[in-house]
Design goal:
By secondary structure, the protein is an alpha/beta fold. It is 48% helix and 13% strand. The strands form two sheets. The chain has an eight-stranded mixed sheet with strand order 6-5-7-4-8-9-10-11, sandwiched between helices. Strands 1-3-2 form a three-stranded antiparallel sheet.
Length: 486
């Protein structure tokens, strides 16, 4: 082996020297900067080939043909224990006959026989490495598991991001609605303040409507639609006419008494359902006789409730039937199908009780066309009456009866609910007498009475500075759009 060193100022010149001295197939061993120039160690191609071939008669050139699984040599010069070589183990099997070797061709040099020697420790390490290597199926299963885990993590991250985004969006929308409400309130307050200064008659009409018990939303809607160039008296007459036209009533009692059918009086406790049932029963008896009428009560909760209606039935000469559930009601109506009119006195249930839904379902599933009449207490507040109507609405009410008109200090609240909820007002009750204190509803009379029965002026009089704030809170409702102005 002849390693040569070449130096030159540049790498190009040094490589040229290597090619000139060792030929184009020279092997470059190193290349570094030295003393301001370049130093290259190179070797001829023939010398490099001789390094790759093992020396003759060396252990690498002549390996043992047998597999040696001997144990480690003990310390202190102990003899090594070897297994018999492959030739010795094969001799007993093939006998002492040795085959004649075939002479090699003269042109080819004799190739030495290579022997492979392996120790027990190397064999054990190879075996352990093979056992430790995972099987392809295990690798594929692990890869599939990793992919599933990654997919699950990505799905969880996406779901969390969507949930956070939805929560942020909901919070932002709530803030936007709050800002919108504040802006609408302030703008309405400014607008009404300007209107109040420019048209003082509207403020006077507004005070009249609020004192009569009408809601701020209905009052605001009508005031905004009020024709221009009218004084306070003309404006109030226009308001009364609009309210009268929008109060739906039963023009003739024949629509109920002559037509007949099954009617159920419903409503909360203490609104006068039993007394109103007795008044209607008396009118039917006077028109068609006791044989054409039947009374049914479902009130099995109040003590003496059934006896109260039974006493009325005994006075009128009408049989009173008591039912407990939908099955009994279905049987009773089937037995009374030949009657001209059937009146059902239901148990009073609070509008916030779950039994209201059960009662409505029982009447609708009775197998007959049961028309429900809602009893509205004129002394209740407007918010309470709205809750009652929403609770008992169901699939639709046939009409309503205004009760305790004689006890109410103002009736604008109940008329407001009837107008906005588009209910058909059949009767008004103003006392306990049967059947005298039950009258057909007269829209003009009720509206005029509402403005005459104004509350105490000292308690309900609003200041001019309070009206803009009150009108800004009176937001429009969907029902206001159906109020006919004429």
């Amino acid at each position: 082996m002849n390693v040569k060193k070449f130096t030159a100022p540049t790498s190009r010149e040094a490589l040229r020297k290597v090619r000139e001295s060792l030929g184009p197939d020279a092997v470059i061993l190193s290349n570094r900067q030295a003393d301001g120039g370049v130093e290259i160690l190179a070797l001829a191609n023939d010398d490099a080939a001789s390094l790759a071939m093992p020396a003759p008669h060396s252990p690498m050139a002549e390996p043992a043909p047998s597999l040696d699984l001997g144990t480690a040599v003990s310390q202190g010069g102990a003899d090594q224990r070897h297994e018999p070589r492959l030739e010795q183990r094969m001799e007993p099997r093939f006998g002492s006959h040795t085959p004649t070797p075939t002479p090699a061709p003269a042109a080819l040099p004799a190739q030495p026989v290579r022997r492979v020697v392996a120790s027990a420790s190397s064999f054990a390490s190879v075996t352990k490495a093979a056992a430790a290597a995972p099987a392809p199926a295990q690798v594929q299963a692990k890869a599939a598991l990793d992919v599933d885990q990654i997919a699950a993590m990505v799905s969880a991250a996406v779901a969390s991001a969507k949930q956070n985004a939805a929560a942020e969006m909901q919070g932002m929308m709530s803030e936007i609605r709050a800002m919108r409400g504040m802006m609408e309130t302030q703008l309405a307050e400014i607008s009404w303040g300007t209107t109040q200064a420019r048209e003082p008659q509207k403020a006077a009409v507004l005070r009249e409507m609020l004192a009569a018990g009408f809601s701020a939303s209905l009052a605001r809607y009508l005031i905004e639609k009020l024709p221009a160039n009218r004084d306070a008296a003309d404006s109030l007459r226009w308001i009364k006419n609009v309210l009268t036209r929008n109060l739906q009533t039963m023009a003739n009692e024949d629509a109920l008494i002559e037509q007949g059918g099954v009617f159920a009086l419903v409503g909360p406790t203490g609104v006068g359902k039993t007394t109103s049932t007795a008044k209607l029963a008396a009118r039917c008896v006077m028109r068609h006789g006791p044989d054409k009428l039947a009374l049914i009560t479902t009130d099995a909760y109040r003590i003496g409730a059934h006896e109260q209606l039974r006493i009325y039935g005994k006075i009128l000469g009408v049989m009173v039937h008591s039912v407990k559930d939908e099955a009994d009601l279905r049987i009773a109506l089937k037995e009374l199908k030949n009657k001209h009119t059937v009146l059902i006195d239901t148990v009073g249930v609070s509008q916030r009780d779950q039994m209201v839904t059960e009662q409505v379902s029982m009447l609708q599933g009775a197998g007959s066309d049961v028309k429900r009449l809602l009893c509205l207490n004129a002394t209740a507040t407007q918010e309470t009456l709205n809750e009652v109507v929403r609770a008992y609405q169901g699939s639709g009410l046939a009409g309503c009866i205004m009760t305790k008109l004689d006890e109410a200090a103002a009736i604008g609240n109940v008329l407001d609910v009837v107008i906005r909820q588009k209910l058909n007002l059949f009767y008004v009750s103003n006392g306990q007498r049967v059947p005298e204190d039950l009258h057909l509803a007269d829209p003009a009379y009720l509206i005029d009475r509402a403005f005459k029965l104004k509350r105490d002026v000292v308690n309900t009089q609003y200041l001019d500075a309070e009206l803009p704030l009150l009108m800004s809170n009176g937001q429009h409702e969907q029902a206001m759009r159906e109020v006919h102005l004429g």
